[in-house]
Amino acid sequence: MSRWLTQILLVVRSVSRRQLIDRELDEEFQDHLQREIDAELSRGVAPEEARYAALRAMGAIAKSKEESRDMRRVNFIDDLVRDLRYAGRSMRRSPGFAVLAVLIMALGIGANTAVFSVVNAVLLKPLAYRDPDRIVALTGTVSEARNGLYRQISVADFQDWHDQSSSFEAMAYYVARETSVMSGPAAEYAQVGTVSPEFFRVFAVEPLVGRFFTAEEMKPGTNGAVMISYRYWQSHFGGDPRVLGQSIRMFGRTLPVAGVLPPGFQFPDKTDLWVPAFPRPGETRGGLNYLAAARLSPSVSVERAQAEISAIAQRLEREYPLTNKGRGVAVTRMRDQMVGDVRAALYLLLGAVSVVLLISCANTATLLLGKATARTREVAVRVALGASRRRIVRQLITESLLLAFLAGAAGLLIASWGSKALVDLAPANLPRLAETSIDSWVLAFTLGISLATSLLFGIVPALYASKIDLNDALKQAGARSVTGGGQARMRSILVVTEIALAVTLLAGAGLLIKSYVALNTVALGFHPEHALVMRATVPALPLEAAGQFFNGVLPQIAALPGVSATGAAMAPPGSLSSGSYGAYFVDHMPDQPDQMSGPAAMKNVVAPGTFAALGIPLKSGRDFSDSDTRSQPFVAVVNEALARESFRGENPIGRRIFCPFDSSEGLTIIGVVGDVRQAGPEREPRPECYMTYRQHAFNGNTLSVIVRTSGDPAVLTETLRRLTRAISPDVPMKFTTMEAVLSDNVAAPRFRTLLFGLFAALAVCLAMAGVYGVMAYAVSQRSNEIGLRMALGAGKGSVLRLILRQGLTCASLGLALGLAAAFAGTRLLTSMLFQVQPNDPWVYLAVAALLGVVTLLASYVPARRAAQIDPLAALRQE
Question: What is the rounded CA–CA span in Å between residue 68 and residue 28?
Answer without folding.
Answer: 12
